[in-house]
Predict the 3D structure of the following.
Amino acid sequence: MRFQNYDTGGFYDEMFTPDGQPRTGTEAVVNRFNALPLEELKRRQQAAEKTLLQMGITFSVYGEEQGTERIFPFDIVPRIIPHNEWVEIESGLKQRIKALNLFINDVYHEQKILKDGVIPEQLVLSASGFRPECMGLRPPGDIWCHITGTDLVRGGDGKFYVLEDNLRCPSGVSYVLQNRVVMKRSFPWAFDAARVAPVSDYPNRLLELLQYLAPTRRDKPVVAVWTPGIYNSAYFEHSFLAQQMGVELVEGSDLVVVDDRVMMRTTNGLKPVDVLYRRIDDDFIDPEVFRSDSMLGVPGLMRAYKAGRVALANAPGTGVADDKAVYAYVPDMIKYYLGEEPILKNVETYLCSREKDLQYVLSNLDKLVVKKVGESGGYGMLVGPHASPEERVEYGEQIKANPRNFIAQPTLALSRVPTLVNDHFEGRHVDLRPYILFGEEIYVMPGGLTRVALKKGSLVVNSSQGGGSKDTWVVEACTLPEGGAPC
Amino acid sequence: MLSRVAESIYWMARYVERVENTARIMDANYHMILDLPVGVGEQWEPLVVTSGDEELFKKLYHDEFNRENVVLFLTFDTRNPNSILSCLQNARENARSVREWISSEMWQQVNTFYLLVKEASREKAVLELPHEFFVEIMMASHHFVGLSENTMTHGEGWEFARLGRMLERADKTARIIDVKYFILLPSVDYIGMPYDHILWGALLRSASAFEMYRKRYGQIVPDQIIEFLILDNEFPRAIHHCLIAAEIALRNISGTVRGRFTNRAEKTLGRLLADLDYIQVEEIKGIGLHEFLDNTQTQLNQIGAAVSETFFSIPVVPAATQSQSIE
């Protein structure tokens, strides 16, 4: 009995109720794990890790011996979401992305929402993701944020909250697909125990979306994934997605703009490109318009884009909506643009740009999580309860120096999932990043990336900060009798 | 296909082939040494000389051409850009940059191959049983080529891999034969002695050609060995065969029919191939085997440069379009 002494520790546990009973949808998997000898379990965990290493799903560790590579740690216990809960998350995400897209379009055109005073004008125009160069742009179908990864967390009350919207180049979807492959190889029996919604359709959907964006109606538009190159930490994902979609993977040096058309250099001369799925920040895409020192960009790209000769996913300028201060107003956007109540709630957020909030934040640093509005990846963050008094004082000075740059949120009791630690299971905090594709219609991949903070008690799930991942299952219901033996 | 992609696939295949040949030549040398009479001494210097990295070796190992130094230099030393580990690193980085083009199986094989040698380089215990290790390397390379054959579309990318592999192999076979020049010729007395046969046998084994040669010619006769390793058009490691295959690959890439050429790569390769189509052993001996091989290697280098210039170098964009400003 692997879970016999498992302690939910007073947190919301995704697998067990507080009295130690498996939650709906997890019974069969719990039984299967319970029936597995410890040695076998560890052997399979190792096999899973070896598979990831051989697949080359690794990231480079900076500052260590050259060539040191680590796999993105993977834990074998899946995170299970019952189907009925998923349905609500899905509709909440669709609602949210619709409103965010309307917001971006509005910001770069009439700015009605600012004029109506729903969101302070200064807050939006001072966001680092706001690009004045994008004013008046008309992306195909008025869709700006084609690919989004929204971070959700489940609090102690068992409800899901939106932690942040990633509207620029969200990464991680390749881990979702590969984790599933590894899980199927290592624990095939776990899958007969539950009807798990498949995720393998994602590359297909992504390709359909990208082809849909092609500016000219052509039979086979040329789509390419644009990567900064092999030294980028997400390079594996870029090449993986290009491979899975069967499209070109290009670097800036492969591209050139001729007569407002984006061309790629091939062994047969220059060939036009219709759609670029760019995995490179706005700042670097075109040195003529954005950062002139960009070595990664393509001079003239924005000219081609404005001329409607090439599509970019996501559109430039979407970063204005995932500014962490703008985030606080998303519920208002939903009401303003859609006339609906938000299905998914925001985490309560204090904007340090508001004097009242600033005072509250400064006097409650020991209780709050403080973030920089333009940062992602867990960088530049203060987890108040886990910080030393000196760190809090020092961080407080930073906030006072530039309040607009900070927001704060209460420290959430993130939900936990059992995770293999040496020879037993312990609860570890998780979040959830579902992926949303916005094209002709809106598609939400069932499940998403579950990131897990592997350090005991840690609330930071980012891979750069000691996080790992789990396979995420959206399950219909248990279909096998209890106590089925592992194959 | 993208020039960058073509180049990476070409080099990926070349590096894997280079690794295999380096392993093969060391393995054969180990075997040869065990058969040599006492007093002849172990001959490791020729391996370095024919690899073309003699200067670097002398600098790094202070002219000490002993077994340990040479094997380390050719196997694990990442300061040597042509060591097995360095080549695998390069093969893998090239493969990584074209992961979406090659099959997942190919990528995983290159990756696993690299990890195998990288792991071995930490312990170096594998050198206690070098034969096992070198065979493992050769098999890993065969595994990779087999996967290329059977999991990748035989289109343009695959042809670039074949082109790279065949040019590399032709060059390495030339170098393997040339080892003999450095071992054998200094001591004229040995010619015609069984020692000489041992060397010729080792040479054939370096090219995995011993058995196939036997079937074809029977006796170990130097002229016939030269004919087999250079001029045979069916044995897969013979220089002539490699160039025939390379030429087919090149024509499939450009779509040019035989008898014509549309670029310098086709021209230089076609010329060398025409030479090999018609040359005979007697003529090679007339030129001098070493001189002939040296010249062949020079021409192979020129072909490599021409391939790069024809397909990989970035086309120049007319200055007028480049300097257009935004309205």
Notes: The longest strand of chain A covers residues 467-478. Residues 478-487 of chain A have pLDDT under 50 and may be disordered.
